[in-house]
């Protein structure tokens, strides 16, 4: 079994060692020396060239390595540089410009603008604190004015009622006074009348008294 | 001998079922040059997915975003965050580069894990993640190198090169070496991770087709995302490093 393993590793070594050579060299093993251009020009060559390579290196350790299988092994061209490289470069650059046009620039600009708008809105919200203060002042002024108006109205009303009351009071007093005056005047007149009447009676009475005191001669 | 040929048939059958193909390419011929057709096909699909989803989601942006737009805004903020932390305040112009790097690698990696590429049969080779091919990763790494050189030169002019002798001139060779190791490590890290991830999944599926590969698949998804993030972060870090003032 050890022999088998040794043998398998020996057959595999040239395959793996020939991997990194990009330039097709005539390989030391005749079965493997398929010159690459030929393979390329005849892609559907008679044998279906299924590669074995890495798993091919692992699996034959379990089974017996056979020369028949080696024919099937094609040289693996892992490090095969060719025109693909510059083409991929060009594709990448084109993709970069296209993605920049389609994706990075427009969406980035849009996001930046949105950020700026949000920030502006935020700062404007902060500014409204001043507006709120102004509004509060306005409200306070209105309240003050309303209060002043109310107190003024109250004062006015008070004054009016007072004046009315006083007027009525004065009127009443005047009436009373007038009545009193009238009553006094009446009284005076009656007194005078009485005095007058008494005066005339006094004259008659005094004559009577004189007649009575002084005997008639 | 009979047993041996029988086992060979079994083995061949196993390979056919598991379909492990490493380093096999579907070659196209373009003007005398060869290209890896499977890489181009999958990269076109990735590009189509990216552009299509982005343009649909961002077509008509709303102030209060809907689900798709929200997701893309989240991704953009993530990319901006990565570039800002690595590059600094002047990250703006580099967002497209870093973002495309991240998104392209991320969608490529996940497409290799999630999209059933294997259903589509190619004459040769097979469809897999574009980052599964060394050409793609080296292309991206070289672009990163070009990007950080461009960033440094446009920011500081020729005095950018004074960073090579910055702490002391003795470090000049190491500083020059860094310019080669940076793209090398970037490309090989990504390539190796994605290739190894897909191989592990394929090998496990071929050995135990049920249940067992599932945790490894999830691990693969995780690694793919991490690799994309690492690539983009390192690219941004290199750009930021070449732009920062030396003190």
TrEMBL record, chain A:
Name the domain of life. Answer: Eukaryota
Q: Name one GO molecular function term.
A: proton-transporting ATPase activity, rotational mechanism
Q: Name one GO biological process term.
A: proton motive force-driven ATP synthesis
Instruction: Kindly give the membrane topology term recorded for this protein.
Output: Single-pass membrane protein
Q: Coiled-coil segments, which residues? A: 118-208
Q: What is its main location?
A: membrane
Cited CDD domains: ATP-synt_Fo_b
Quote the protein name from its UniProt record.
ATP synthase subunit b', chloroplastic
What is the organism field in this record? Punica granatum
The encoding gene is: LOC116188579
TrEMBL record, chain B:
Q: How does it sit in the membrane?
A: Multi-pass membrane protein
A Gene Ontology molecular function term of the record: proton-transporting ATP synthase activity, rotational mechanism
Keywords in alphabetical order: ATP synthesis, CF(0), Chloroplast, Hydrogen ion transport, Ion transport, Membrane, Plastid, Thylakoid, Transmembrane, Transmembrane helix, Transport
Q: Which Pfam families match?
A: ATP-synt_A
What PROSITE patterns does this protein's entry cite?
A: ATPASE_A
What transmembrane ranges does the database entry give? 35-58, 94-114, 134-153, 190-212, 218-239
**Subcellular location, in the record's words?**
Membrane; Plastid, Chloroplast thylakoid membrane
**Which portions of this protein are annotated as coiled-coil regions?**
none
Main location class: membrane
What Gene3D superfamilies does the database record attribute to this sequence?
A: ATP synthase, F0 complex, subunit A (1.20.120.220)
A single Gene Ontology CC annotation of this entry is: proton-transporting ATP synthase complex
Family named by the database record: Belongs to the ATPase A chain family.
Chain's role: Key component of the proton channel; it plays a direct role in the translocation of protons across the membrane.
Assembly state and interactors? F-type ATPases have 2 components, CF(1) - the catalytic core - and CF(0) - the membrane proton channel. CF(1) has five subunits: alpha(3), beta(3), gamma(1), delta(1), epsilon(1). CF(0) has four main subunits: a, b, b' and c.
Instruction: Provide the protein name.
Output: ATP synthase subunit a, chloroplastic
Q: In which organism is this protein found?
A: Punica granatum
